[in-house]
Every structure is written in structure tokens, then in C-alpha cells.
Design goal:
single chain; mainly beta; Jelly Rolls; Immunoglobulin-like; 8 helices; about 15% helix; NDNF_N; NDNF; repeat; Ig-like_fold
């Protein structure tokens, strides 16, 4: 059914006149009275565009009205109206005013005398409400008309200010603004894991017809399902974040906010929004209708919504949402500790999970020894379920504990850094045979700036009251390697893996007076203006080395 806005003004005068006469003679409902009152202000009202999606902002408890006119046709012609609430439930209705064909005929003959106008006022006309709806679902009204008629759409939000989109079309032959949904629009959950959920859904007919301009987008959140894409975007914005439309996200990553993360891989766009109620993910995967959602949290309920999006118009249609709960995380594996055996554990900094070690005591007194190899580690020890020690460790740490025979100790380790950490653990009932050597107060290496030359440097380190072996190693490095070398240093590793060319010397020393337990060494044969990395290894009675903190020194350029 074709609408011509250039030709509707003349019939409109007759509709208004007929409506005024009819409103005097016939009893009306309040909605109909409001409808007729609005006709007086029609020229100041809003006309609903045909074939275009219109965004309408509603103030709480203030109705808003839009109009459109359909012209007379010899055959019944269809029209459709689709309303999409973008937040709270709304009320909306359609009212229609029809005038008789005879009155329209008289008015359009061009005779403007008073008598004929009076007759046209007496012509019968009707005002009726043809549709009412209240809710927050996307709703479409399909109508047929063959008479000239004036239609009014009235919208009302009683909860709060909100916005909606409205789409009117009288041309049902040129395709759909909104992508079509299949006969069965449900999303099926076909697989659930600890951190993944696999979904599938039936193809949209629009995808089969226009594959190049249609795509599927999936929304994942922990709160509830959304009935439209604009409702989801509104909810995310209300949490304190600006969320660009799906199409803008896929084309313009520069629009992303600081709380958003965009991941583009294998033709798949993922937007992760950090909101107060958790993570909201928006994933667009082209025309695939099966997808496995990765990186979910165990034992968590998630809600999944699939939208089929027209890339040319940015209009979308929503499948029926679903939900699933990921499986509970399996109990962590527990490693048994044995007397005197050293266990080295690498801890994942990204997952921040505890690594568990268990020990059943065969003596009343036991000693746990920890040597931090890399990063930072949190140690938590329980005895028969009760906490006996819990702290962060650095360097070497001993815990001497008393209990009963067959007490069960559980040691839990966790990296406190974002990168991997590493630690060596030993438990032993033999206090007189420590695993690690006696350590000095500090494991730092000191260099003397005044003693530096073009081809030598002098370093010093602390010793102990126990005679031990110390070995010095050096390695030439570049400026851009310094930070990486110092951060990635494996403090538990011994010198056995290093080239023999890096070894400088080994020496024994001790002093019963700790104030004098200091040794120095001058390393010669170096290149001028060059950076060197120096390491000192301490070997105790058990033969297990302890590495001092690496020291970087640069020789002088000129002497």
C-alpha cells in the first residue's frame, strides 16, 4: 500500500471535520477522546516515517503519539508495525479513524460552499482501538486496509525514562528490514564443561538468502536473558559504560571504552565488557550456527542470547535465549611429600590456583623448607584441617612444627604474581640435617663504583659462620636485556647448566664473627664500556646451591 505524504493533507481536513462532528454525537472512551483532541494539534505532531526504523525517547508517565495516514485502495493492502522496547516494559496501542467514502468524495470535488461542508460533517465516521500491548518483548502488528484512514500510535512508560524503536512499512514486497527467524528460534545447549558451553541454533532464512550481509552475534552474561540487542546494550550502558552498537564495534575498535576488551581472531570478534555484575561478552561469529563459548568460570550459571544482525541496516532479531551452568571444578590433585625428597613446583600466575602437597607425619616434629626460585609465592599449611602457618615467602623459609604421629599436613601454594612462580619444597624430621646451606643476612651482591676500571670490577658479598663453597660466574649482556634477565632469573638453578666459559672462580671462606664474614673479589680481563651480569652460588653440606641476587655492572669507558 503506497503512502503519498504530498496528497494526504486534503483528505485529512475531511477526517478532522468528520471526527469533530462525530465526537459531539457519540459517546467515546477516554482514549478515543484523547485521539480526537490530538487531531486539533496534528500539524504540530510527529509523523511516523514509512520504511525506516525510528528511535523514540519516552519520559516517565508522559504519553507520546505518532501518526501515519493510509490512502484508499481497491484491494486490501498489508502494513506492519514493529515496536522494540530497549529497557523497561511499556504500554502501546494503535487507534484508527476512518471516514466514509461519500464524505471524502464530496470534499475532494472542489465545492467548498457551506452547505456541502456541513453535510460532510454529518457523514458517519469511526474511531477504534485496534491493538493494545504491555510488556518488554519485541511485538509486531500486521494489519490490512482498503480505506483512507488516519492511524495513531500511543506509547507510555510508567516505570522510568526509556527509549524504544518503531518500524512501520507498507511495502511488504521489497524484503525485510529485520532478519527473519526460523520456525523454531530456540538455542540448544549441546555440551557443557567446566569452562565451556557449546550452543547451536537453526539458521535464519535471511542467512541462507543474504549470507554476505547477515551475521550472528552471541551475548553472554551472568544476570539474565535479553529480548533484544538494544535492551542488552541499554543494560550495559546503565552499569556505567558506553557501549557502541554491534556494527560499530565490528568496524571501529577505536570506539572501545577502557572497561572493554576486543579480541579478533579467526574472523571472530569478541567484546568483553567489565561491569559491576560480572562480565558481559559480545561475540560475532559470521554465519556459523554452532559455537563453543570458552574461558567461563566453573560452577557458574550463564545466560546466552543469539541475535541475527543485518549488517546493512544494523537491525537485528533475537532468538529465544537459554541458560546453562558450567560443571563444578574438579578437586585439585594432591602430591604426596616424602621425607627428605625435594619437590619443585611451577605455579600458574594467570589462573591463581592453589597447588596442593600432602604429608603424613612419621615423627612428632617436622620441618618444612621452602626455597623461592622465581616470582612470589603464598604458602598455607594446615594440620588435620586447622591452619598452622600462612604467609608469603621470599628467599628461604623454614617452618618447624610439632604434632602427633600420623598427623596429616596439607601444604597449599599459590603464585601472587600475574606471571608464573616457582618454589622448591622439602619436609624432613631431621632438624640437624638442613636441606639448604646456612644463609647470610642478605643475598645481595655489592659492587664498588670507585674501584671500577675499563677492564675490571670489584664485587663483594656476605658469608656465614659455616665454611661453604662460593662460585662466581659472569656473562656479557646488552642494555635491552637487563630487565628481562633480572626478572626471569631462576634462583634455584645451579651453575651446572651454564657454559664453562662463564665461570670466573670458586672459593671457600667463613668467619665466626658475622661482622667480618664478608669477602671481595676483583674480576679482571673485561672489555671497556660493557655491561656484565655477575652471579654468586653458595653450596652447603647437602650440595644444593643457593643463588645470590644477580648484579649488573658496567665497566668504565675511559680510564
Amino acid at each position: 500500500l503506497k503512502m503519498s505524504w504530498l496528497r494526504f493533507y486534503l483528505p485529512l481536513h475531511v477526517l478532522m471535520a468528520a471526527c469533530l462532528c462525530h465526537s459531539i454525537k457519540a459517546p467515546t472512551t477516554s482514549s478515543q477522546q484523547s485521539f480526537r483532541t490530538d487531531l486539533f494539534n496534528f500539524y504540530h505532531s510527529l509523523i511516523l516515517a514509512d520504511g525506516k526504523e525510528t528511535t523514540i525517547h519516552l519520559m516517565k508517565d508522559i504519553p507520546k503519539r505518532y501518526y501515519f495516514v493510509l490512502e484508499e485502495s481497491r484491494v486490501l493492502s498489508p502494513f506492519t508495525i514493529t515496536v522494540t522496547p530497549c529497557d523497561v516494559p511499556i504500554e502501546w496501542s494503535i487507534l484508527v479513524h476512518k471516514a466514509s467514502a461519500s464524505s471524502l468524495g464530496k470534499e475532494t470535488q472542489g465545492d467548498h460552499d457551506t452547505q456541502e461542508f456541513s453535510q460532510s460533517q454529518k457523514a458517519p465516521s469511526t474511531v477504534s482501538t485496534i491493538f493494545n500491548y504491555k510488556g518488554n518483548s519485541v511485538e509486531t502488528y500486521m494489519g490490512m486496509s482498503s480505506h483512507s484512514a488516519l492511524y495513531m500510535l500511543e506509547f507510555l512508560s510508567t516505570e522510568r525514562d526509556t527509549h524504544i524503536t518503531v518500524y512501520l512499512t507498507t511495502d511488504t514486497t521489497s524484503g525485510h528490514l529485520y532478519p527473519e527467524l526460523p520456525m523454531d528460534p530456540r538455542i540448544d545447549v549441546i555440551g557443557v564443561g567446566h569452562t565451556t558451553v557449546t550452543l547451536t541454533w537453526k539458521h535464519s532464512p535471511s542467512v541462507l538468502k543474504h549470507r554476505e550481509s547477515i551475521q550472528y552475534c552471541l551475548l553472554v552474561n551472568e544476570k539474565h536473558n535479553y529480548k533484544s540487542l538494544c535492551a542488552a546494550e541499554t543494560a550495559i550502558r546503565s552499569s556505567g559504560m558506553k557501549l557502541p552498537p554491534t556494527l560499530a564495534l565490528s568496524l571501529s575498535p577505536y570506539l572501545l571504552e577502557p572497561q572493554q576488551v576486543m579480541i579478533l581472531s579467526n574472523s571472530e570478534l569478541s567484546i568483553i565488557n567489565k561491569v559491576s555484575s560480572g562480565e558481559v561478552r559480545q561475540i560475532c561469529m559470521g554465519t556459523r550456527n554452532t559455537y563453543t563459548v570458552p574461558n567461563l568460570s566453573p560452577s557458574t550459571q550463564y545466560y546466552f542470547d543469539v541475535f541475527v544482525v543485518n549488517l546493512l541496516t544494523n537491525a537485528s532479531a533475537a532468538y529465544t535465549g537459554t541458560f546453562a551452568r558450567t560443571l563444578e571444578e574438579p578437586e585439585p590433585k594432591v602430591t604426596e611429600l616424602k621425607d627428605g625428597k625435594v619437590v619443585q613446583v611451577v605455579l600458574d600466575g594467570k589462573k591463581q590456583k592453589f597447588y596442593s602437597l600432602q604429608y603424613q607425619a612419621r615423627h612428632k616434629k617436622v620441618q618444612f623448607s621452602f626455597q623461592l626460585c622465581r616470582g612470589q609465592v603464598r604458602v598455607h599449611i594446615t594440620k588435620n584441617g586447622k591452619t598452622v602457618a600462612s604467609e608469603n615467602i621470599s628467599g628461604l623459609k623454614y617452618f618447624s612444627l610439632k604434632g602427633k604421629l600420623l598427623d596429616t599436613y596439607l601444604v597449599q601454594l599459590r603464585s601472587t604474581e600475574e606471571f608464573n612462580s616457582s618454589v622448591k619444597v622439602q619436609v624432613s624430621p631431621h632438624f640437624h640435617k638442613p636441606l639448604f646451606p646456612l644463609l647470610p643476612e642478605s643475598l645481595k651482591i655489592k659492587s664498588f663504583s670507585k674501584l671500577r676500571t675499563c677492564n675490571s670490577v670489584t664485587i663483594a658479598w656476605l658469608g656465614t659462620q659455616e665454611e661453604s663453597k662460593y662460585c662466581v660466574y659472569k656473562r656479557r649482556i646488552e642494555e635491552d636485556q637487563v630487565w628481562r634477565e633480572l626478572q626471569s632469573a631462576e634462583r634455584c638453578s645451579g651453575p651446572e647448566s651454564r657454559p664453562k666459559s662463564e665461570k670466573v672462580l670458586c672459593k671457600y671462606f667463613y668467619d665466626l664473627n658475622l661482622q667480618r664474614a664478608v669477602t671481595t673479589e676483583t674480576i679482571k680481563g673485561l672489555d671497556a664500556a660493557t655491561l656484565y651480569l655477575f652471579d654468586v652460588y653458595l653450596f652447603g653440606p647437602s650440595g644444593i646451591p643457593v643463588r645470590y641476587h644477580s648484579k649488573v655492572v658496567k665497566t668504565r669507558k675511559k680510564c
